[in-house]
Amino acid sequence: MQIYWTKINKIIDETPEVKTYMLDCPKDFTWEEGSHTHFAMEGFNAGEKPNRSLVRHMSISTLPHEDSIGITTRIKEQCSEFKTILRNLEVGSDVALFKTHSNVPLKREDKNVYLLSSGVGLATFRPLVLDYLDRADNVNQIHSLNIDSSKDFLFTDVFASAPDKKFTSQFVDNRKDYYKEVENLAADKDGLFYVVGSDEFLVQNIAVLREQGVKPEQIMLDKHPHMMPEFLSVDVVK
């Protein structure tokens, strides 16, 4: 396993609780849209076994052409040991990246794409939208739907509707409006539905989509292939 050590070059306060850590790109480090990586603090591999409390599975919120690796995360006042350490890091601090992979690259199958996310889960979709806006080949259109009860919506510069490019973006701050809209979107029986958020959020979205007739193969999750059946085998209420 190759571990890439790199430095923080910028810290962006996206909202009062959300920060993006911009990291230098190590030589030979590559990724694609929808990628996640293991993000680790100094000392995580100092002992015989890795210290898992110093490692987190994080989405990369940038594309390679932006020349920095963006890690966007929510840090609440009461948070884990990992987030506490992260909050105290500064520009120039060393961090490690390893096991980088994408489970949710943008599928170009001449279909409508729907991006369903909760809160900071939108970070996973930012690169997909940028990739689409740069090159719309074989994608009919994209609609993004994000729920964030804090009302501090993320990346509003990227997630701004662009009708001329067949991209629409929608933010809601409550579950009732969110799931009503998911039901409406699921009327597209040929669409591709990407879902990013907590496991509970995934299960709830999958249940709504399946009840509306969306097939498991139309649902994309940021999960390893061997974990997909566990989420997609939701019982459908007839």
TrEMBL record:
Organism: Gracilibacillus salinarum
Superkingdom as given in the UniProt entry: Bacteria
Listed name of the protein: Dihydropteridine reductase
SUPFAM superfamilies linked: Ferredoxin reductase-like, C-terminal NADP-linked domain, Riboflavin synthase domain-like
